[in-house]
Every structure is written in C-alpha cells, then in structure tokens.
Specification:
96 residues; alpha+beta; Double Stranded RNA Binding Domain; three-stranded antiparallel beta sheet; 1 helix; 3 strands
C-alpha cells in the first residue's frame, strides 16, 4: 500500500556571548514534534570561521534528532512484537 507524508525540519542556530554555537533541529510530522540539540565551539588557537561552527552544531543537532527517531522506531517495533534491527558499530568502519 502506498504511503506518502511530508515532514519538515527547521534548524535554528544561535551564537552566544562566549562564541559557542548552539543549534536546535525541530522535526514537525504534522502530528508531533521532535527536537534535537547540538553545540560547537572554536578551539583555542583555531581561526574563527562561523560557518564551520554552524555546520558542526547543526550536524550534531540533526544527529541527535536522528538518534531520537531511531529510538522511537525501535520502541514502536518492540511494541508490535517484532525484533529491532541489529546495530552495527562502528558504522562503515568509522566510529560516530
């Protein structure tokens, strides 16, 4: 049976007074919202390039969001009596 839905993700980025970039990724499924969070800070001695901090913070927020979705799906699968997908770690030979 065909199934089509549209989910929207909105990412907010804010740099605080200490130079730390914080990100919030919010998924809206139409029936619920899930929020992932991430942060990044420039290491002392590194050149400050705001776009890189944005990328790290947003990527971490999206990864957090993804982990929450996977956890929810695993819980839902268990609730209907099926076994969860086996985890492979590290993925593709690289730790996350």
């Amino acid at each position: 049976m065909p199934h089509t839905v549209e989910w929207n993700v909105h990412v907010d980025l804010v740099e605080d007074a200490e130079g730390r970039t914080r990100a919030r990724a919010t998924l809206d499924t139409g029936t619920t919202t899930v929020t992932g969070r991430g942060a990044a800070a420039c290491a002392p001695g590194d050149r400050d390039i705001p776009e890189i901090g944005d990328e790290f913070a947003a990527g971490r927020a999206l990864r957090d969001l993804g982990e929450q979705l996977l956890h929810t799906a695993e819980h839902d699968v268990a609730a209907v009596g099926a076994a969860p997908e086996p985890r492979r770690s590290p993925m593709y030979g690289w730790p996350l």
